[in-house]
Amino acid sequence: MDITLELKKRITNQHLTISGSKSETNRLLLLQALYPQLKIENTSNSDDSEVVKNALFTLNESTEINVHHAGTAMRFLTAYFATQENKQTVLTGSSRMKERPISVLVDALLQLGADISYVEEVGFPPLKIIGKKITKNKVTIDANVSSQYITALMLIGSTLPNGIEINLQGNLTSLSYINMTLSVLHSLGLKAAFNDKIIKIPFEKEIKKDVFIVESDWSSASYFYSIIALSAVGTKITLGYFRQNSFQGDSVLPEIYKNFGVQTTFQNAEIILEKTSNVKTQTFNFELNNTPDITQTLIVTCLGLGMTCNISGLHTLKIKETDRLQALKNELEKFGAAVAITNDSIHLKNKVAFSINPVEIETYQDHRMAMAFAPLALKQPLIIKNAEVVSKSYPDFWNDLKALGFCIS
């Protein structure tokens, strides 16, 4: 489904409620499967979370589980099914999923004694997993590839008879997501310690707290930060439900978007975003090693404001739903921007003149490409290809944009 997106009237102060964090929800769903007394409120309604939920609670009798494009599901479920004694499972996914490496996690689980083999190409899904009781408890893993590999081990750690000790090698990427996992474990009363690149999690028979209310998704909020940044001074949007002391790494958005004249006010579990001033600086440099998921949003904001932007710490983006660095370069250049990419950075030199003619945005089966570019409809009409891809993380996105005054056809 392709859509044409443009703004017909000025945005007025609207109140939107964003569904629960996909990252928190997926961690909690796995913990709920391990500790069935856990009750979760305000869960994400994303496709990714539905995939995890179905795999754990609906499709549990099936020997083959297709996670489609859900990378988080592939990684978390690999660790989970490795611990399910006497259960045989084949984890597979889309053609893109079969191109996304998983050997770092599989090798770590094999160190612990898991029974996992590759069905097709070595190092990539599909995986054949025969669940067994895992008694080894020490594992070494590369920390500079994906934090989700580490989180997958952390989530099963407290149910292993001897717990788990994870030794991290190399520079740790996406530290904020490791800290989120630690915070979720701690909030349920599970012990977990992280010191000097060693994570220790002892065996725990039960959780101490059995209800968890999921915070709304800060990654999803990022698109509204971009909309406010590209709007006139005085424009406001109110979003719920958000905590000032968030577990989510992308909660750095209020600080980052101060650079673009956006003020964030926390009030009664909501945030009020207001454009309070125009941008005075023309060049920004950002290091997003801990929060790579907001890269697309941030660089599109800079494009819309006519700024030059340099973003580094992005080595994980090449193994996401698409090669996000190359995809960004392709689409940003359609607006006349000069874009250079390396293995872990993107550089935007911007002298864009927007027009009344629609620009066609390819989404590459990547939800964040669709949503990150959408705010540019404030500057000129867009055609978003395969717009339904947003359901991966934010199914209500286009309806929420309509509520703000965007015209979608």
UniProtKB/TrEMBL annotation:
<dbReference type="GO" id="GO:0008652">
    <property type="term" value="P:amino acid biosynthetic process"/>
</dbReference>
<dbReference type="Pfam" id="PF00275">
    <property type="entry name" value="EPSP_synthase"/>
</dbReference>
<keyword id="KW-0028">Amino-acid biosynthesis</keyword>
<keyword id="KW-0808">Transferase</keyword>
<dbReference type="InterPro" id="IPR001986">
    <property type="entry name" value="Enolpyruvate_Tfrase_dom"/>
</dbReference>
<dbReference type="InterPro" id="IPR023193">
    <property type="entry name" value="EPSP_synthase_CS"/>
</dbReference>
<feature type="domain" description="Enolpyruvate transferase">
    <location>
        <begin position="37"/>
        <end position="401"/>
    </location>
</feature>
<dbReference type="GO" id="GO:0009073">
    <property type="term" value="P:aromatic amino acid family biosynthetic process"/>
</dbReference>
<keyword id="KW-0057">Aromatic amino acid biosynthesis</keyword>
<comment type="pathway">
    <text>Metabolic intermediate biosynthesis; chorismate biosynthesis; chorismate from D-erythrose 4-phosphate and phosphoenolpyruvate: step 6/7.</text>
</comment>
<dbReference type="GO" id="GO:0003866">
    <property type="term" value="F:3-phosphoshikimate 1-carboxyvinyltransferase activity"/>
</dbReference>
<dbReference type="InterPro" id="IPR036968">
    <property type="entry name" value="Enolpyruvate_Tfrase_sf"/>
</dbReference>
<dbReference type="InterPro" id="IPR013792">
    <property type="entry name" value="RNA3'P_cycl/enolpyr_Trfase_a/b"/>
</dbReference>
<protein>
    <recommendedName>
        <fullName>3-phosphoshikimate 1-carboxyvinyltransferase</fullName>
        <ecNumber>2.5.1.19</ecNumber>
    </recommendedName>
</protein>
<dbReference type="GO" id="GO:0009423">
    <property type="term" value="P:chorismate biosynthetic process"/>
</dbReference>
<comment type="similarity">
    <text>Belongs to the EPSP synthase family.</text>
</comment>
<dbReference type="InterPro" id="IPR006264">
    <property type="entry name" value="EPSP_synthase"/>
</dbReference>
